Amino acid sequence: MQSEIRKRLIEAFTNAGDEYLSGQFLAEIAGCSRTAIWKHIEELRKEGFVFEAVKKKGYKIIQAPENVTADEISFGLKTDFIGRAIHYEEEVDSTQKIAHRLATEGAVEGTVIVAEEQLSGRGRLDRKWHSPKYSGIWMSIILRPNLPMQKAPQLTLVTAVAVVQAIEEVTGLLPQIKWPNDILISGKKVTGILTEMQADADRINAIIVGIGINVNQKQDDFPEEIQQIATSLAAESGQNMSRARLMQAVFARLERLYQTYLKEGFFPIKLLWESYALSIGKEIIARTVTGDIYGKALGITEDGVLNIQQANGEIVQVYSADIFINE
């Protein structure tokens, strides 16, 4: 976990913008000696931060690294709670597993677990998620909403809108949402979202939101069996992206939408979600465990359930399915 002193230093440099911060000022806000400050700055340099040091003025960060360490994610972060506590790992089986453990141990709301590589990343229905090192965003976020358990699936849709908005903001690309939890660009999957719940009999203890975003992979980096259906932000835009900047945008968008959702309910989220939805108004096939449903996707209910109007006019509600556009 990120040390408290390091967090205070990064926050100070974030708030300072283009100003220099003296060693004495940094020592006072961090509650340590100027010698300790120098040691922390040297550690930040090792991570890839570039400092400008001017005598009698102090220090200023002039360049941040391109990796996704806790310090890099924190530098420039503009949220109140999401991403303020970061658990960073180089390699894990799954960020979801770590998030579940930390949530059980009492991790604060907004804690983020991020890894450079997942060995056993997974998506909905326990499908494997390809999570190679240094190329994507593989993370889980712990939320603790005061909600009835039946509303937990709505947070998948809240997250999907936040990720779409963040991708638009950072890249200029125009993603679409494929119900219930995929984000596509040019018809290919770029992001998957997995929400899991920890609960007692009558209340939610935590929602673990897993997010996997293909950021800087080349098309031939994907396994051959998914090259026709997967893509990355770099493959679509023609340029590599700052993963830390994208994560910061996701955290800011998610925090804002999450707070709107808790205050105003699901309706404003529903309108946003439908505006980004790939299948609304189109003829689709919904492949469920009990068989295929054919019809027009009308939209989602207040509970995030998909309404499909069949040829005979009957409206069927679908809670879980794989969706295919019926060309």
UniProtKB/TrEMBL annotation:
Domain (BPL/LPL catalytic): residue spans on this chain: 71-262
Annotated catalysed reactions: biotin + L-lysyl-[protein] + ATP = N(6)-biotinyl-L-lysyl-[protein] + AMP + diphosphate + H(+)
Record Pfam families: BPL_C, BPL_LplA_LipB, HTH_11
SUPFAM superfamilies, sorted: Class II aaRS and biotin synthetases (SSF55681), Winged helix' DNA-binding domain (SSF46785)
Residue range(s) of DNA binding per entry: 23-42
PROSITE patterns documented for this protein: BPL_LPL_CATALYTIC (PS51733)
Keyword set, alphabetical order: ATP-binding, Biotin, DNA-binding, Ligase, Nucleotide-binding, Repressor, Transcription, Transcription regulation
Matches recorded under Gene3D superfamilies: 2.30.30.100, Bira Bifunctional Protein, Domain 2, Winged helix-like DNA-binding domain superfamily/Winged helix DNA-binding domain
InterPro entries registered for this protein in UniProt: aa-tRNA-synth_II/BPL/LPL, Bifunct_BirA, Biotin_CoA_COase_ligase, BPL_C, BPL_LPL_catalytic, HTH_11, WH-like_DNA-bd_sf, WH_DNA-bd_sf
The keyword Ligase is assigned to this record: yes
GO molecular function: biotin--[biotin carboxyl-carrier protein] ligase activity
Binding-site list for biotin: 118, 122-124, 189
E.C. no: 6.3.4.15
PANTHER family reported for this sequence: BIOTIN PROTEIN LIGASE (PTHR12835), BIOTIN--PROTEIN LIGASE (PTHR12835:SF5)
Protein family according to the UniProt entry: Belongs to the biotin--protein ligase family.
Function: Acts both as a biotin--[acetyl-CoA-carboxylase] ligase and a repressor.
Name listed for the protein in its UniProt record: Bifunctional ligase/repressor BirA
Species in which this protein is naturally found: Mesobacillus maritimus
